[in-house]
Specification:
Belongs to the TolB family. This protein is mainly beta and 337 residues long. It is built from two helices and 24 strands.
């Protein structure tokens, strides 16, 4: 599930007010209203500050074996969620509703034409064969309490998008190797779960029904598994299941909040982002995070990076290089430079 860091701020605002009400054990309504007013004032001030604070973004290529980083783009603006092209020559990032191509050397290659879909969020990516681009577009024609994101598909080089998911909100995360199914996080009847939909018919199938948020579903390269993250235990962890939803198995058990698993080309390695502190089921921007790599065969995870400033937008979608030697991610700095 994606969205800009400010969009998620607004969503989390409501969540934390509810937590305030429950946890402060306020008896008198006047006291509760006073605390609510103070809390809203604080958070609104923080959001205004965030909107006026320069954000620098770094597009980083990381060697997963050596840990060596190469910063190919550093700009005083906010961009998110790199995808690596299947030919290995460029990356795709999103910013202000648009998708941009950036060469592996950091050269701007232009905006991808997505037609009417001009409010894309950070859930986008390419098919395994590189022919198709799948986007999550915040569609102004619809609305719901969970958002208005719907999933569309178009030619990888741009064109007129075709709707896949008529239901909303739907946030894309994966596509099957045969291009028949897309996987995504969706809210239906107030519950966030993992779904898949047929690319041609739009048939929607629910894959998870556990309590708590299920998100980030992505197919393995061999098509045998769908990896996802779930808050069903009260902490966010990495899971996998078969494409029909069976054999749902927890893979991480540490004290981090683990999000957005991205299986590598070797079908053994899974890269993901770990929040250092418990985020209570949210995945906000501007937190201490690090990237980790899970060895599916041993069940062991290791750090790929030190702790850095990131979160929402850092590693939302698949960003492995075609040869499986590198991943791309975004690191942020909120201070003017």
């Amino acid at each position: 599930m994606g969205g800009s860091y400010l969009e998620n701020f607004r969503e989390n605002l409501i969540f934390w007010i509810w937590e305030l009400k429950n946890n402060l054990k306020i008896i008198e309504m006047k006291t509760f209203l006073l605390h609510t007013f103070i809390f809203f004032t604080f958070l609104i001030t923080a959001e205004i500050t965030a909107q006026n604070t320069p954000i620098s973004s770094e597009l980083v290529l990381l060697d997963v074996e050596t840990g060596k980083e190469k910063i190919i783009l550093h700009e005083q603006r906010h961009f998110e969620a790199p995808n690596w092209s299947r030919d290995g020559k460029h990356l795709i990032i999103n910013t202000k509703g648009k998708l941009e191509k950036i060469s592996v050397k950091g050269k701007h290659l232009g905006i991808i034409d997505t037609g009417f879909a001009d409010n894309c969020n950070n859930d986008h990516g390419l098919s395994f064969d590189g022919k198709w681009l799948i986007i999550s577009h915040n569609d102004p024609r619809v609305s719901s309490s969970g958002g208005n994101s719907r999933i569309f598909i178009l030619a990888a080089n741009g064109g007129i998008p075709r709707l896949i998911t008529s239901n909303y909100p739907s946030y894309w995360h994966g596509i099957s190797p045969d291009n028949q199914w897309v996987t995504y996080c969706a809210m239906r009847d107030g519950q966030w779960d993992v779904y898949k939909a047929h690319v041609i018919t739009g048939e929607e199938i629910r894959l998870t029904d556990a309590d708590g948020l299920d998100d980030g579903p992505e197919y393995s390269y061999d098509g045998e598994w769908i990896y996802f993250n779930s808050h069903r235990t009260g902490r966010m962890h990495i899971y996998r299941m078969r494409p029909d939803g069976s054999e749902q198995t927890q893979l991480t058990f540490d004290d981090y909040d683990n999000w957005f698993p991205h299986p590598g080309p070797d079908n053994k390695s899974v890269a993901y982002i770990a929040y250092i502190e418990d985020q209570k089921g949210a995945h906000p921007f501007g937190k201490d995070v690090k990237l980790r790599l899970l060895d599916v065969e041993t069940g062991e995870s290791r750090d790929l990076t030190p702790i850095f400033y990131g979160g929402q937008g850092t590693l939302n979608v698949h960003s492995w290089s075609p040869d499986g030697k590198q991943i791309a991610f975004v690191r942020y700095n909120s201070k003017a430079e």
